[in-house]
Amino acid sequence: MRSFKDIFDSIKKQAQNNQNEEKKLLISKDLKKNINNIKDYLGSSTDLILREFIIGEKYRCALFIIDGLTNGVYIYDYLLKPLMVDVRNTKLSVEINSPQDLFKVLKDRVISLIDIKDDDDFYQLVDALLTGDSLLFVDGVAKAFIIETKGWQDRGVTEASSQMVVRGPKDSFNETLRTNTMLIRRRIKDPNLRIENKTIGTRSRTDVAIMYIKGIANDKVVEEIHERLDRIKIDAILESSYIEQLIQDNRFSPFPTISNTERPDSAAASLLSGFVVLLIDGTPYTLIVPGLFISLFHTAEDYYHRFFFSTMVRLVRSFVFFLALLTPSIYIAITTFHQEMLPTPLLISISNQREGIPFPAFIEALLMEMTFEILREAGIRMPRAIGSAITVVGGLVLGEAAVQAGIVSSVMVIVVSLTAISSLITPAYDLGISVRLLRFVFMFLSASFGLYGITIGLLFLLLHLCSLRSFGIPYLYPLAPFNFEAFKDSIIRQPLWKDWKRPNLVSHGNVRQKPPKIAAPKPPKSSKEKNR
Amino acid sequence: MKKVSIFLFIIIITLSLTGCWGKKELDEISLISGLAIDPSEKGYLISVQVMVPGEITGETRSAASNARMFSEEGESIFQAIRKLTMKMPRKAYFTHLMVIIINEEVAKDNMLEIIDLCLRDTEIRPDVPIIISKDDMARDILKSVTHIENIPANKVKKTGTNMNENWTATKTITLLNLFNAMASDGVNPTLIGATVVGDEKEGETTKNVEDIESPAMIELRYFSVFKNNKLIGWLDEDESRGYSYLIGEIHSSIMTVPCDEYNTYNLEIYSFKTKEDVKIKEGKPVVYIDYYIVTNVGEIGCSINLKNMDEVKKLESIFEEEVIENSYYTIEQLQIKYQSDIVGFGEMIHRKEPKIWKALKEDWDSHFENLEVVIDAKVKIRRPGTIRGQIIDEIIK
After folding, report:
1. Are residues B180 and B274 both part of a single domain?
2. What is the least distance, in Å, from the CA of B84 to any CA of chain A?
3. Are A340 and B53 a contacting pair at CB < 8 A?
4. Cβ contacts (< 8 Å) between B53 and chain A: which residues?
5. What is the CATH number of the domain that holds B283?
6. Which of A251, A334, A352, A452 to mutate to test the interface with B (most CBs of B within 10 A)?
7. Are both A40 and A114 inside the same structural domain?
8. CA–CA separation, B217 vs B135, rounded Å?
C-alpha cells in the first residue's frame, strides 16, 4: 500500500516539476526584443526604470531596476559609474571581440558588486527584478545579469512593541527578512545554523526562511514543515499568521499550536532548544514550530533573572491563566448555586451589594464582560488622539457610574477587572485571545450547571489539550507525556548552572550545559593567607 | 462539520433546557443565622433569625436591627420551618446557620427528632454549635441584640469559641459531636447552657446596644447532663471546671487557688495534656487519668518567693491538689447525682479493654456508679512573668 502511495506521490511531483519547466522561457539575443518583452510583461509600470547605454563603441546595454526597491548608491557608484565611465579609462588587457567576451569581462572585471549571476530564463529574471535586483542586458547575448542591489526604506531595528522586557536585549525583528536573519545569525554563529528559503504566494512571492540548527532540531519536524509549506497554494502572504493558519494541525482549536515572537533573543533561544523558526518577509512576527502549550507561558526574560524569581513568576502565570479563564464563571456559580461555599461575612457583603441589582448574576457578568471587550477593542482601534476620552468614558462612566446607578454590583466590577488584568499577564497574546473566548463558554456552563458545569468544561478542555499535536509533538509536552528533563524548564525554571538538557521530543536531546566539576565558585584567598 | 454542528446544537439545547435548575440568586434567599426551638401547645415553636445584609455591611447603617426574627408554630419542626414561608418573602437558607438553640424543656423531652432533622437536612452543616437555653426561652436568647458582634446568633457562637479557647468552663458542642455522643454506648452527651442576664425586654430592642453597658447580655455557663438522650440536670461552675479537666478540653485557662481569706494564687495554663489508661483490678476496670499541666504565673496575691525553687515546688503541689480534688469532686457528683457518664469513661474502657467492655456495655450507667477512677496531676510552672520578684513584698517593705 505504502509503496503504491509513494509511487503515486512521485508521479504527482514529477508532473508539478514538468509544469514548472514548461514555464521556462528563454530570452533572445536581441536587446530590443528583450526590452519590449519586459516592458510588456510589467505593463510599463511607472516604477520600472530602464537605462540604455553603450559600452565602447558598439555594445549596447540596458539596465532595468524597480524604483524604490534598489539602493541608489549601488546603482550609481558601483554599477553605472564602472560601466559607463571607468570602462573607458581603464585598460582591460583583454581583447573584446564579441558581446560574449564583453559579458564575461563585465562580470570578472568591471561590476564591483558582490552578488551577481547570469540567467537566461525570462521569468527568473523578472522575479529577480521584482525583488529589487537589477537586470543588465547586453545586446547580442541571450543571457542577462541579475545584480543584487536590494535596498529599500525600512523601519530599522527598533524596540519590541508587544513583548517587552525589563532586562534583556531591546532589539526586535522588523519587516525585512534579511535583517531578521541577520539578527539571529549575529546571536548564533554556529555553522550548523541553516537557513532554507521558500517563495510562497503566487502573487506576493513572499520569501519564507526556515531556520534551524542542524543536529539539534528534529529532522522530521523540518521535513514536515517543508512538506506543509509546499502544500500552500495562496495568492499572497501578508503576515506570518497566514502561514500559521495554513500549516497548523488542529484548525478548530481555540489554542495556537504555533507560537510566535518578535524578539530575536526568543527566536535564538528556541533555535537552541531545537525548535524551528519560520521568518516571513514583511512581518516582524516569526513563527516557532512546534508550538507547545507551556511555551506560551514563557518569556525571554525568564532566563535573564535568577531562577527563584523566574520560577515564581512562571508559577504565578500558570495560576493566573486559570484566574483569567474562570473568575467570572466561579463568581456566577458560587453566588447562584453554592452560597454555602463562602464564609458568612463575605457572603453577607456580596449579598448586600447584590441587593437591588436588577439582573441575575450571569447577565450582570455577561454585561460587564461585553463592556470590557468593547472597551478593549476600542482601545486598540481608536486613533491615538482620542485615547484619553476613551479612558474617561470607559473607566469612570461604565465602571463607577454603573455601580452607583445600581445596574451592576461593585463585586462584579472587581471580578471583571481582575479577569481583565489576569488575561493580560500571559506573555503570548494568542493565548490571551483563546482565554477570552473560552471565558464566555465557561460563564454559560456555570450559569447552567454551577460548579459541575465548570468542572465538566475543564475536563473537556483538558481532553482537548491532550489531543492536540503540533507537528507531531504532543501539545502539552512536557507535562502530558511527562518528561522530567524537559519539565525542569516548564512551569518552573531550573538554575542555569544545573544539568540542562534540551526537550527530548523536540530536539535530539543533547546536553545543553553541563555543570563544571567544582559546582560552586570559591571565594579568592585573602592576601594574608597568601603571605603565609 | 455536520457532526460538529449536531454536537454543538445538542450542547446548546441541553444548556438552555436546564433553565438554570437549582439556581437561587442572592437576592432570592434569606440567610438564616440562628434557629431556636421552643415548646408550644401545638408542638414546637420555631424561631429563625434572618441576617439583613444591608444593615450589617451597608455604607449607611441605620439604627435598625441587624437581624429579623420570624416565628411559627407547628406539629413538627420541619412543618413549622416550612410554614414560615407564609411570613417570609424569601426562601430560608440554612447553610450559614451559626447556632441552634434548644429550649431546656424540649431537651428534657425529646432531642432525637431535632438531631434527625438537622442531620438529614442538606442545608444545615454538621458543625453548627448546639446550645441549650437554661431558664429562658430559646427565642429570647436569639433575640438579644448585642454589642461587638453584629448578629446575635454570631455572638452566641463566638462567645462559645472564645470561652473554649481562654476559659475552661464551657466547650461548644456541635451537631456532629452531639450525634456521636448519642450514638456511642460509652459516653453520654452534654451541651452548654445559655441564659439572658438582665432585662430581657430591654435586650430585644436596639436600645440594648446604645448604652455602654447593655441592660441584657447573653451568658454561656454550665454544662448540661444528659441521660438516655434526655436532659436531666446541670453542672455548677466547679463541676463544669472539673469536667473540662477530665475531658482535657483546655487550650488556655486560669487556675485559681485561695491563699488567704481574700487573696488568690493564679496560674495561666498554656499546655494541658491528659493521659488516660485503663487497668483491670480484680476483674473490674480502673481508669487512670494523668494531667500534665504547663503554666505561667498569672497573679500572685500573697507573699511567696518565686526565686526559691522549693517555694515554686510548693506552689505547684498546691495546684496539683486543687486539680485532683476538683476532678474527684466532679466524678463523684456525676456518679451519685446523675449516674450519667458524660466524660466518656466507657469509651476509654472500650478502647483499652474491649473484652471487658463487652460485659459492661449493656448496663453501663449502673456500672459507672461504681467505677474507680484514679487521678494524678503534674503542674509545671515555667515562667514567673515580666516581674521576677514579689511586688507585694516590695510594697509592704
Report:
1. no
2. 21
3. no
4. 348-349, 351-352, 355
5. 3.30.300.210
6. A352
7. yes
8. 14
Mean pLDDT, all residues of chain B: 82
Instruction: Tell me the shortest Cα–Cα distance from B157 to chain A, in angstroms.
Output: 13
For residue B291, which phi and psi values (nearest 5 degrees)?
-100, 145
Final residue before a domain boundary, out of B201, B234, B267: B234
Report yes or no: A149 and A65 within 8 Å, Cβ to Cβ: yes
How far is Cα A385 from Cα A170, in angstroms, rounded to an integer?
A: 27
The span from the CA of B235 to the CA of B241, in Å, is: 9
Which among B202, B234, B266 is the end of a domain?
A: B234
Are residues A328 and A415 in contact, defined by beta-carbon separation less than 8 angstroms? yes
The string of DSSP codes covering B76-131 is SHHHHHHHGGGT-SSEEE-TT--EEEEEHHHHHH--HHHHHHHHHSSSS-TT-EEE
Tell me if B98 is assigned to some domain. Answer: yes
Structural domain contains residue A529:
no
Same domain membership, residue A427 and residue A371: yes
Task: Compare CB distances from A355 to B20, B53, B96 and report the shortest one's residue.
Answer: B53
ipTM at complex level: 0.79
Note whether B272 and B185 are same-domain residues: no
B22 and A361: CB-CB below 8 Å?
Answer: no
Task: Provide the domain limits for residue B242.
Answer: 238-392
B224 and B254 share one domain: no
Cell digits for A434?
483563546
Strand-pairing partners, residue B99, are B34
Pick from A109, A128, A147: which residue ends a domain?
A: A147
Q: Are A119 and A125 in contact (CB under 8 A)?
A: yes
Q: Are residues A298 and A311 in the same domain?
A: no
**Is residue A154 one of the residues assigned to a domain?**
no
Residue B315 lies in a domain: yes
- Are B252 and B113 members of one domain? no
Subunit contact B22:A450, Cβ cutoff 8 A: yes
A338 and A290 assigned to the same domain = no
Partners of A362 on chain B (C-beta within 8 Å) are: 20
- Structural domain of A296: 177-303
Q: Is residue A155 part of a domain?
A: no
Q: What's the domain count of chain B?
A: 2
With an 8 Å Cβ cutoff, are B24 and A337 in contact? yes
Query: Is there a contact between B392 and B303 (Cβ–Cβ < 8 Å)?
Result: yes
Give the three cell numbers for residue B193: 447552657
Question: Could you tell me if residue B268 is inside a domain?
Answer: yes
Same domain, A245 and A273: yes
pLDDT tens per residue across span A293-339? 998 999 888 989 999 999 999 999 999 999 999 999 999 999 998 88
Per-residue pLDDT of chain A (532 residues; tens, 9 = 90+): 455 566 666 666 665 555 555 567 888 888 999 999 999 998 888 999 999 998 877 889 999 999 988 888 888 888 888 888 887 777 766 777 888 888 888 888 888 888 899 888 988 899 899 988 999 999 988 999 999 988 888 888 999 888 888 899 999 999 999 999 999 999 999 999 999 999 999 888 899 999 999 988 988 899 999 999 999 999 999 999 999 999 998 888 899 999 999 999 999 999 988 899 999 999 999 999 889 999 899 988 898 999 999 999 999 999 999 999 999 999 999 999 888 888 888 888 888 888 888 888 899 999 888 888 888 888 888 887 877 777 777 777 777 788 888 888 888 889 988 998 898 888 888 888 899 999 999 998 898 888 999 999 999 999 999 999 999 899 998 888 888 888 888 888 888 887 778 888 888 767 777 766 656 677 777 666 555 5
Asked if A52 contacts A150 with a C-beta cutoff of 8 angstroms, the reply is: no
Is residue B5 domain-resident? no
The whole-angstrom separation of Cα A188 and Cα A266 is 12
Residue A166: inside a domain = no
Sequence-separated (6 or more) residues with CB below 8 Å from residue B396: B303
Q: How many domains does chain A have?
A: 3
Residues A80 and A126 reside in one and the same domain:
yes
